[in-house]
Amino acid sequence: MPTGPAYLIAFLVGPLEQTLGALAFSLPCFLVLWLTSGESLTIPLSPRGLWSVLYLALFGSLLGFLCYFLILSRLPAATVALVTLITPVLALTLGMTLNREQPSASMLIGAALILVALGAYLFGDRLARLKAEAAALRTPE
């Protein structure tokens, strides 16, 4: 069994608190880097851009993390990890549907490969089991 301060902290603090602590620690670091980089402190933001940032902050981060941790508490980690693989395909589909984006052929091929691989992972075991059962039924005893 692992020991040490990092393991103890991870054991005593839940995943949501760990994420909140990491974000609370990293935000001041980003601010210091921004101030020392010499970049302008003003950000030209259109109303559409402002709504986009608010949407990402609320749904993409806050609600997304809450749902992710809720699902993680109820499903195996290996299954939940597959969500990160389907996210680019979903983003590509939303961009095509809502923003009339035209993806390249290689992007569509990549999305199809991701879907095929996820399908093979999710249903491959069932297919192998069905084939084994069918072979067992055909074989006389």
TrEMBL record:
Official protein name in the record: EamA family transporter
InterPro entries referenced in this protein's UniProt entry, alphabetically: AA-Vitamin_Transporters (IPR050638), EamA_dom (IPR000620), EmrE-like (IPR037185)
Signal sequence residues: none
Family annotation (Pfam families): EamA
Gene3D superfamilies: 1.10.3730.20
UniProt entry tagged with the keyword Calcium: no
UniProt keyword list: Membrane, Transmembrane, Transmembrane helix
Subcellular location field: Membrane
Keyword Membrane on entry: yes
Transmembrane residue ranges: 20-37, 49-71, 77-98, 105-123
Domain EamA: 19-118
Family: Belongs to the EamA transporter family.
Organism: Halomonas flagellata
Membrane topology: Multi-pass membrane protein
